[in-house]
Amino acid sequence: MGKLFTLTFPVIRISHSQIKCWLRVSNVRKLKIAVPTKKHKGLEDVVSEVFGKAKTFTIVDVEDGEVKNVQVIDNPAASYEYGSGPVAVKTLADLKVNLVMAGELGPGASNLLGHYKINRFSVKSNTKVADSIKEALKLTAEPS
pTM for this structure? Predict the structure, then answer.
């Protein structure tokens, strides 16, 4: 049997000012944001307390600071007993998400976000998705 080994990737956690700088410096005009949510309510839903076991993900397409599209997907890993975070991250990576707005993340999910170069923006659980998105967009619109 082969040796077991662990790969460790850096955790990418960014603050409000860092996201503003990242968007400005990288000249990002389009964002695909994923938010772990509790139901199928889109922008009216609230941020879930959990990431990997969240019932749904609200996916928000933003272009030039405006919300262009909102879709809600079921989390395929919501019912997993273990390992739900990495499966959720892979699902979001396959959807070409480049920013996750969440409260807490487990170590597996955090490492894989870094591996897929998906940035993380911390938000409080139970905050309305629309309010979280508005705050992030407001920060990117503010002059330096």
Answer: 0.80
